[in-house]
Amino acid sequence: MKAGPAVWLAVAALACCLFLMIREAWSEETLWPGDPGKSIESDGKLLVDTGYVSDGYFWAAVRDTNKHRLKLRVIKGDQTLTYDLNGDAEYECFPLQLGSGDYEISLYENVSGKKYAGSGKLTIYAGMENEDSCFLIPNQYVHYTPSSEAVLESETRCAGMSAAETYTSVCDFMTGSFVYDFIKALTIQAGQLPEIDECFATRKGVCQDLSAVMCCMLRTRGVPARLMIGYADSNYHAWVEFRMDGKDYFFDPTAAINGIGKVNTYSVERYY
């Protein structure tokens, strides 16, 4: 007995649904920001792509090449985050990690010494269904690409694992494969960003490098992970917090690697 047109339509619809479910499941593991250029807003020298704010991030750049040092200031309510912005007119990705609402984004240009002058300001509204979405993609502080060795390692090592299994596997990998870079700790410059690719290649880094590598490996497998920066007692420090099954969990890769004594208080200053 031959199947009629209605049967074939039903089969085709089911196949399409299965394909979309598989694609959605995969995208929840490895997510990447969309290319800049979707919806550009500008003021003065500041360029902001607001096309992805519902996904928890925005792109920013300076109009034309600029040889002066640039600062990007992001304000939401009483919270302020300040970033360095490159002057070569290339877009950089920044998280909207403070949740849904109005964000004021301002560009400041160094004019002399330590003095900066405003070069553009925009206010954008971000309404996000999933406020963890910005912790599932790379950004300026947790920067990696599809070819980063940390990404490839995580995709291979944690393939088919649950979130809990992924967490355990990544923790074991970090504590068993990396060392703390005491020399870099003495020479690191203020404002230097975490270096995921270098840390992974050399298997050593300071606290922000180690934490950024761990965030990368968790995000790659769909586990929302935050790079936390603040104080461990009186020491400036970086660590990781991540979310599984609606609960927040903590891990300090530097403490695990060094085997240092118990920290009494972690105080958060900012996170990415």
Q: How would you explain this protein's 3D organization?
A:
- By secondary structure, this protein is an alpha+beta fold.
- It has two domains: 40-135, Sandwich (Immunoglobulin-like); 141-271, C8orf32 fold (Roll).
- 29% of the residues lie in helices and 33% in strands.
- The chain contains seven helices and 14 strands.
- It has helices at 5-27, 149-157, 163-177, 182-187, 196-202, 207-220, 253-258; strands at 40-43, 46-49, 57-62, 70-76, 79-85, 92-95, 101-112, 115-126, 179-180, 204-205, 225-232, 235-244, 247-251, 266-271.
- The strands form four sheets. The protein has a four-stranded antiparallel β-sheet, with no helix packed on it. Strands 5-4-7-8 form a four-stranded antiparallel β-sheet, with no helix packed on it.
- Helix 2 packs across helix 6, helix 3 (163-177) packs antiparallel against helix 6 (207-220) and helix 5 (196-202) crosses helix 6 (207-220).
- The longest helix is centred in the N-terminal third of the chain and has 23 residues, at 5-27.
- It is globular.
